[in-house]
Amino acid sequence: MRDRGLALLGAAVSLVLVLMLLTPLGRQGQPRLSVPTTVDRGGAGLKAARKWLDGQGVATASLRRPLQSLLDRSGGESLLIMALPGRTPLQAEQASALKAWLRRGNQVLILAAVGNRPPWVRYLGGSAAVALQRLGVHVLTEAGTADRMEDGALVLRATGSLPVTKGVERLRVPGPASAEAIKGLSRQDGVAVNLFRSATGNSAFWWMPLGKGALWVSGYAGLFGHDALAHADNARLLANIVNRSLGSDGAVIFDDYRFGLTDRYDPEAFFADPRLHNSLAFVLGLWLLYVVGHTSRLGAFPRRRGPAATRAFAEGVGGLLARRISRAALLDGLWRHLVRDLQRRHGAGDAWTILARCPTVPARDVEALSRERVRVEAGRRVDPERFAALINRIREQAL
């Protein structure tokens, strides 16, 4: 019972250590929020938009690398859909790559959280306005004139009759509204056409050419998320933009990389993956059942052994010395011990003389010992076991 209690204590300590390793230090707990990616099923997710386009026969893709990778893509004119701000900021080199991609004839649809503040924006450190400035687009805002909400949403209406606004009378955008209203938009390298306005007359959605391509900018994020795609004419607007943007071999590309989805190794995404937590929970639970279950297979503690026998001790010491002493020193030591024992038993004198006079020692053994001694003194190889057996036999016969 005591062993089982110690095992349970060790398992609990191991569980605490694993939880500490999987919890990023210094980070406050954040609620699980829906973000605009193609794998998110929440209100802000774009999974339904991609599935709907796939069902219409439109080629789609999830971008899970930096924007510079767009320059390596082949195929016809494509449309990139990206939401701002993202988990990672839009760097200057990424903005340059995006503009170069646009000049090739591609188009970009930006869903910028400027006029509204979806929940996921509060937990991101970037700014949609700053990201747009890197693309040469400046959003003009004014504090204190926030848009009116209608049934918990913002309503946008077309400014005129254009091909892209055909069949689109109004758009519905999830709130809440931002404290600053959008008053206009300016560009450093071209014009911007305002396509939609809010109920209070604020600018909302623009189209602007760039090289052979074009840039679509919505000042309101969430236009095509799960909470908005099926409402009003939001889906119709997305269809119109896709039809005017794609070439024969083009695709609609969703920028999932901006929100942490990447083909590369991302430690934060790895530790945040619920599949990792579920796997660890299963393994830990199975281990707990193993170590504290009714039929525990933990081995019994070994019993304390008694004192080593004299023979075992001698064999151990002898084995140690045998591994450390040289062959020549061993053979010489066996001979010297025999000489000492003969002189103690028969008196002082030459060992060979004592053996020659000893009637109990056969002459053939004395001759064999003499030959072995000659080989030892000459530095030739001698079998230690055979030499030791000969010494022991002569000792028993002479003593």
**Helices and strands, in N-to-C order?**
HHEEHEHEEEEEEEHEHHHHHHH
Task: Please state the CA-atom Rg, rounded to the nearest Å.
Answer: 44 Å
Strand order of the largest sheet: 1-11-2-3-10-9-8-5-6
CATH class annotation of the largest domain: Alpha Beta
Which structural category fits the helices and strands? alpha/beta
Number of domains: 2
Number of strands: 11
CATH architecture of the largest domain: 3-Layer(aba) Sandwich
Number of H/I helices: 12
Helical proportion, percent range: 25-40%
How much β-strand is present in the residues? 15-25%
How do the strands and helices of this protein lay out in sequence?
Layout: H1 2-22, H2 47-55, E1 60-63, E2 79-84, H3 92-103, E3 107-112, H4 128-134, E4 137-143, E5 153-158, E6 170-174, E7 180-187, E8 193-198, E9 203-210, E10 213-218, H5 234-245, E11 252-255, H6 267-272, H7 274-292, H8 310-324, H9 327-346, H10 351-357, H11 363-377, H12 384-398
Parallel strand pairs: 1-11, 2-3, 2-11, 3-10
Antiparallel strand pairs: 4-7, 5-6, 5-8, 8-9, 9-10
Helix pairs in contact: 1-7, 9-12, 11-12
